[in-house]
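Task: sequence design from structure.
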């Protein structure tokens, strides 16, 4: 930890470099070129970019290479030309005031969400490693106000955890935030050891105070790292350009929030607050810092 505090510019170097040069302005430029061109596709236009491009005051070296991992996320824009690569189930996007956005704004918002999710997943991996931190894999501290930590899981991910499963009509009719709390054998669920619960919104692993994920190893590493659940790959800085109205509710609508959320408990979020604010500014998103484990 002392090493991190003294040298965070050095140990976070690669992540800081990515935060300072977000890919979205370059994607925006490519989208503009695409809309101005008659026939050329996104890949061809990206490949024809010069060795160095400047946009929004940022210089990108080898822009074709920078853009390559994000081209699948940009494919949705092809819907504007009636191209074949767009997702057929493009959701309707609404403003926070409830007005439906036009096709162009909806596509841009969903595309920016997809691009930033990809970019921030990478940035998170670069920043998390040097922290020697296991906060995401442990329940709240024994003296914390919060009683449990929830790790949402997809149906196919529950096989990764050899833990008791609570899957009943009553668990499936409620959620962990319900008041009064869902009880197992007469006790609130969070007073039991770690277990998997099937809620109305889907499965999650519940880690009570002072307990950790069964895959957290003594060295602080994950025993199933290559296979770890999707949520464990998610960053502590994440885009909320658009979001679903409610988790678990079958509703294809999205709401445009234009926000960047960062979890304040995470050590690299605290260390890099100013750089994260700059990243939000370049992406034209409002910044929200939130505490997860109180
Ligand atoms: S699966 Fe791995 S990354 Fe996810 S909570 Fe458990 S130890 Fe942490
Ligand atoms: S809180 Fe941050 S540094 Fe700690 S494990 Fe989670 S992502 Fe990594």
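Answer:
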């Amino acid at each position: 930890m002392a090493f991190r505090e003294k040298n965070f510019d050095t140990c976070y170097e690669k992540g800081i470099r990515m935060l300072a040069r977000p890919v979205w302005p370059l994607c925006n430029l490519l989208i503009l070129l695409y809309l101005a061109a008659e026939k050329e596709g996104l890949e061809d236009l990206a490949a024809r970019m010069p060795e160095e491009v400047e946009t929004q005051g940022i210089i990108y070296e080898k822009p074709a290479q920078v853009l390559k991992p994000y081209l699948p996320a940009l494919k949705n824009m092809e819907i504007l030309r009636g191209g074949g690569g767009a997702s057929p189930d493009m959701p309707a996007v609404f403003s926070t005031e409830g007005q439906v956005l036009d096709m162009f704004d909806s596509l841009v918002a969903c595309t920016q969400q997809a691009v930033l999710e990809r970019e921030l997943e990478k940035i998170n991996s670069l920043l998390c490693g040097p922290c020697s931190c296991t906060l995401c894999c442990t329940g709240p501290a024994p003296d914390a106000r919060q009683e449990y930590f929830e790790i949402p899981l997809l149906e196919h991910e529950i096989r990764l955890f050899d833990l008791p499963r609570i899957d009943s009509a009553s668990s499936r009719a409620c959620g962990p935030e319900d008041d009064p709390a869902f009880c197992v054998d007469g006790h609130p669920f969070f007073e039991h050891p770690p277990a998997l619960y099937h809620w109305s919104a889907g499965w999650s692993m519940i880690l009570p105070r002072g307990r950790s994920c069964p895959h957290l190893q003594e060295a602080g590493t994950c025993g199933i790292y290559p296979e770890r659940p999707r949520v464990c790959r998610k960053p502590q800085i994440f885009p909320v350009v658009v979001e679903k109205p409610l988790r678990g509710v079958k509703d294809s609508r999205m709401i445009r929030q234009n926000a960047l959320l960062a979890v304040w408990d995470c050590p690299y979020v605290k260390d890099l607050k100013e750089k994260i604010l700059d990243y939000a500014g370049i992406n034209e998103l409002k910044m929200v810092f939130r505490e997860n484990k109180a």
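The pocket of iron/sulfur cluster (ligand 2) is lined by residues 124, 128, 131, 133-136, 236, 266-268 (CB under 6 Å).
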